[in-house]
Every structure is written in structure tokens, then in C-alpha cells.
């Protein structure tokens, strides 16, 4: 195709800008420019490893194309220059008839996105050159097999033809030949298949398959660029929180062929087991195949260890290269390779995705080997992985019916209803059903369903198949290659040794053993949770190596972290559990939880009291109950701070439902059975009814409107602390006033609280040092933090309410209504209630922290919203300079780990 006929108008290029790099020019540190694939091919080339020659088009060229719809003006000339150099190096020209050079055109972003973008192999083959390839290889069948692969891949990827049409044609050809696999098709069969594929392209694409090899390459390059913005790629980026503006590089690599007969093949290898972290020989190998056959899972592979018997020379060379790469990258490496008639070629390497358990084991192994230090080990794991390890596992002692066994690809215990396509998985999941997605093999189009499912089960593929790689990356339970299970997606059923599982039947899959069970298998606590609970001790004979690895990583984190970690706990039981999990105090005790159940009526009487006597009576009844609660809490957390938030919830939570009460009164009136108390109550509820209770009479406002309420709570705290001190305890209560919007509110409550504390000190003879502070959970409080700090000894950011008031929406309402649409459209990368909104809510936290400490340099700062246990948010709170985070007891280990990681990361940045 000439440049004049190109429909894409070239865009101007900045002088001196370079868009194409030879493999000899790059290195692994240029992932932002060359993508992971191109950068690592360059690195392996620099290391002297056997890499087929090639070059990489940069992510900058991709972004220009995506932004303008046209390639940079200089790109075609740069590609031509590098193609000329490649042809000279290989002593053959792209697609020439007698001895054709063929190339692969492959995607490769900065961050690994397995299977999400496009690749085209065998570019350069045509009607004119297929005979030349056959002569060059001495194998006519191989040439026609390669040609049908190109047309199939090019038709689907570049021309947008439905891939099922090619698959159906291939299946028909196999049935006609009674062939079990495509390898059993002979040359004549493949020639017929090529003609049929070309007709499919012509009919479906509205044009013939291109015979010009350069046109093939140019169109393939554009298709790879455009694959960055496919729905599946965008969905994967949102799932993995990969920025959408990075773009993909395009790697052009001279083809080497694994489908040249039994002395050829292709495979994927890991330097350690990505599922367990154990050292050894892990991977898959497929004789007489091209690379896509392995990751697609369309033919079952053999274990990599069997390569030693098939081709010992290549096996030994591969083992040496694997050791070189792991030592060089100082991490688990994922390697793609091809053997062409006994010659080993390296096609890709990257730091491999791994399961959570493998991540912890590998990090400590590499420390022991001296390849990394403790600070680096902390960067090799994260809080999300630790949370995965705390999930339950199947009870080994429970009765269960084994359906079959596959490859343990990604661990976990997943139970759900069997579904056989992504659409059903999504639909049922949104209806609240837990599902297991069952396929012969997955492909990138199944990503939505994989995300929706509890786990994935396939009858084909291995540890390096698409299902396995993507599931590990997402932390999903996955069992692959369960060959004894017959999956019929059209009939929506699974057959296992005569047992038929219809869609909707419950199955359980164990990603740690590869076992598949009929029905629901009970689960038991994770050994990691037992370790944190103190029921399993690291170093003990019965402690497994995973617990030992977690123990070591947590020790690294605790030694390095600056942020302290407290718990959100409202009773002694939760406080004791939190302490076992490593909590360094309580950052949020919600006193409203102490008023539920039987005590609710007492609060109702207080709120509806008409006279001072009624109010005093209600307060007097509540005081000893509150005091008892606090004594138990201070005992459980003896020697550690306990931040008690005074009553905060909206008023309606303590009042009868207005609709139910109205119906009750109406029915009583109809029966002429009037209840004076209900009538009085209804009048009061009508009077206090609010259209938006979350922004109504609650928090400090309630304490100011109902005389004595906060004073009673402060007295209970002070008397409990005094009693605990007299018992030789060490209580450290802190009193927190909620929902403050102006310093005047805080000053009034503080004055009253100080008077009460002084009275208790005089009455008990015990000196009390009770810190008084506030929650920063309203934008006005954050914006006037400098003023508020004059009356507060500490701030605790209530990021749940702060997020609601900054964004102007109610969490209880919007998460179920439009959050899904916002996530799908990319407006949210993640819910702002899950991870702190750095640009909005986070900016207020940062400015309030700075303003507060400017007024009061010793101001203690913490956070007690749910963000306190979110890994990414903890990193932000470290950056801002908070003193502690507070979270639910179960999230404490996660927060401890992330606080250590944040400190190690910032120390590394400072040293650099």
C-alpha cells in the first residue's frame, strides 16, 4: 500500500522525536516507552540470550495515533528503516516469494495485561510466499498451517471478523477428517481450510485478505494500537487500576516456529511455581505448536519437566537461562520460549503474576538468598494479598463428593452455582447469586464473567493458560485443565463420570488442590487468621511455611512503619480480638452501638422527654450502663489509647418508624382503642421527623440540643477511667466530639466536658488526663481546621461522612443505584468509599492536617473511616503525615503491612 492511498493522514512530528527502537537499543527500565514486552526483549538481548531480532514502536506513537486517529508523520519511515535493517540481518525480505521473512506483531503495555490486547503472528505470508516458506522449511504442511493461522488471527484481530466463524470451519475440517486435533489435519486439508478462511474474510470484512506483506504489517500495527481501547482492555485496566493514558507499544519480531514438527515446540516457564512459590521446574510445553496454542488452552500441554526427555539440550539451556533471568530480575520470572528444530529462542520474559501465598513465600525466599533486603521484600507483597490469605478454606473433614481434579491454578475455596457463559455469570451475580464460571477454556472476551464469578473452572489449559494467568492476577480461585470433566457450553451442562451438573447446580472448587466437588463444601478459618488470633505460632512444628512467611513479612512491616494502627471496636470482645491482631489502641468506639437492643427505649425516652425531671431520669438510667461498658473496654485495652466518640447517629435511628407508628395509631382509632402513649409518641415523631436525617439533628448538634446528653457520656467515661485507675489499671481514654462544623460548637461541648471531668476528679480523688478532640468529617471543618485546632487536642478524620459530604451523595443509596454505571464508564476507577479520593477528599485531609498542625504543632492526627483499612488509602495517610489509622479488627494486619510498605517505599525514595 502506498502512503498516498493510506486513509490515515499523518500527523506532524516533533523534530528529533524517536518512535522506533531496535532490541539492541532498549533495556528493562524503558517499560513506559517500550512496554513490558519490548523493554524485556531488549534486556534479554543485552544479556546475550537467544532473542530473535526485532524492533519496538513506542507507546508515544500509540498515544498520538489514538488521540488524532493518525500515525506520527515520521513513523512509517522509521519502521521502514528498521525493517530494512532487520531484513539485512536475516538475509531475507518481508514476505518475499522464494524465502520470506515473517514477523509477529505483538502488543505490550507498561503493565502486564495478559490476553487483553492483540497479537498477529506469521505476518508476511501470502498466496505468493506460502510455497517459498514450504521450500525453506522443507515442510509443506507447516507452511499451510502457518498461513491458515495468519488468516484466522488477522481476520479476527485486524479486520473484525467473528472468530467463531473460523473456529467452526476448523472444527468442521477436523470432523470431516475424523481428526482429534488440528495437528492431525494434513496439507490438503489445510489448503482447503485456507481457501475457506479467505472466503470468510471476503464475505464478513467486505474485502479480500491482503496479499501485500507490508500492508499486512501496517494494518496489524494499527490494530494493536486500537486494541488498547477495546472494552475488555478497558475493563481489565479498571479492575487492575492501570491508568488509561499509558498506551501500548508494538513489538515487531522475526518469527521463529514451534510448529515445524516433533523437534519443535513452544512453552511457558516460571522460575518458581506462581501458585505456591515453591522452587522447581514449573511450566507447560506443547510440541509442534505456536505460542498462542499454549496460552489459549486449546490443546492440553505437558509439564515443562517432560521437555528434559523430549529435548535435553534445549531443556538444559532453558534451565540456565531461567536461573540467569531470576538472578538478574531478582524475582519470579514468567518466560515464553519457542524451540525451532532444536534451537531455543526466548520470546518474552516479565516479572510473573503470582498468587497471594506465593508472593509471601517468594519474598522471604529471596531475602534468604540475598537477592533482596527486607525493604524490598515489603514491596513484593501488599495488603490486598494478605486479605486474600485470611479468607476461609475448605474443611478437610467435611463429607464431599469429588467430581474430578484439574490443575491448581489459583488458590482459594470458591462455592457457587454453575454457569457456562459470561453473560449469565454477570446477570446472576448482580442478582446476588454466587457463581462459578465453567468453560472449556476462557478467552479475553470472558473477562466480565471472570470478574463476576467466585471462581473459574476450565476443562482445558494449564497453569499458563489465559484463565490461570488472569485469575491469579485478580486473586480469583481457578482450576484449569480438568480433562475428565466434559463441558458442554451449548447445552449448559458439565458431565463428570456419569454425573450431570446442570446450570444452576452448586459446585465447589479448590484452587489449592485442583479438586472439584458437587454441592457446597463447608469452609474453615484460614491458618493465617489462626496465626493472628494466636492459635498457631510461627516456628512451631505444626505451623506451615505460609504462616512462617507471613510472620516474617509482618515483622519487617512492624519494624519499619511510622503509622500506628488502631481498631474500630465498640465492646470488649472486639477490642480483645483487635489487640490479638496487633491493634495499638482503639481509634473509634461508637457509643451509639451501646444504645441498641434493650437500651433503645431508654434513649427514646430521653429524646422525647418534655420536662427536666423526665430527662434527668432517663440520663440517670443510662449512666451506669455506659460506665460499665467503658470499664470493660478500658480493661481490654489497658495501657493503650481508646478514642470514644460521643453519640453520633441520626435521630431517626432511636425513634419508632413513622409509617409503622401511624398505621398502629390509625388501627387503634378504627377499633376505638386509643393508646395515649402512642398518640403522644406519634406527635413527637412528627415534630422531629427529618427529610434527610444524615444531614439533620445528629452528632454535636444532638448534644447541644438535648441538655445533659454529652455530659452524661463524659461522666461515664471519666468515672470508668477513675475506677480502672483505682484498680491499678492504665486507662487512656480520649473523648471525640462528632460532626463539628465550627469551633464554637466544639468550645461549648469542651467547656461542659472539662467541668464534668473536674467534678469526677474531685469526687474520686483521681487525676484524669482525658484528651478532647473532634472528628473532621464535614468540608467546613476541614476548611477551618486551623480554627478548630485551637479547641482540639486531636483530629480524627471521619472519611465515610467526609466522602459523602464532599461528593454530595449518600453511600447507602448511591452504591446500589449508579455506582456500577460509573465504574463501567470509567468515571470511578474504584468506589470513593473503598479507596480515598485523593484529589477531592484527600486534598481536604491534607490541607486540614497542615492547618491544624500550624495552629497546634503537637496535634495528633488519625483516621477512623473504613479507608483506614484500605491498602491504597493507608499509603496516602502515611504520605500526609497522620499518626495512626483505625479500622475493623479483621483489617488490622492489612493496615500494619501497608503502613510498613509505605515507610519502606518513602525511605527508598528519600535515599534515591
From TrEMBL:
Segments forming domain Pyruvate phosphate dikinase AMP/ATP-binding: 75-300, 306-357
Reactions performed catalytically: pyruvate + phosphate + ATP = phosphoenolpyruvate + AMP + diphosphate + H(+)
Record organism: Streptomyces scopuliridis RB72
Domain PEP-utilising enzyme mobile: from-to ranges: 433-514
InterPro entries: ATP_grasp_subdomain_1, PEP-util_enz_mobile_dom, PEP_util_AS, PEP_util_C, Phosphohistidine_dom_sf, PPDK_AMP/ATP-bd, Pyruvate_phosphate_dikinase, Pyrv/PenolPyrv_kinase-like_dom
Keyword tags: ATP-binding, Kinase, Magnesium, Metal-binding, Nucleotide-binding, Pyruvate, Transferase
TM segment ranges: none
PANTHER family, A to Z: PHOSPHOENOLPYRUVATE DIKINASE-RELATED, PYRUVATE, PHOSPHATE DIKINASE 1, CHLOROPLASTIC
Domain PEP-utilising enzyme C-terminal residues, every copy: 548-899
Record: active site: 466, 864
Keyword Glycosyltransferase: no
Protein name from the UniProt record: Pyruvate, phosphate dikinase
Annotated NCBIfam families: PRK05878.1, pyru_phos_dikin
Top-level taxon of the source organism: Bacteria
Homology family: Belongs to the PEP-utilizing enzyme family.
Entry cofactors: Mg(2+)
Entry binding sites for substrate: 590, 645, 777, 798-801
MF terms (GO), sorted A to Z: ATP binding; kinase activity; metal ion binding; pyruvate, phosphate dikinase activity
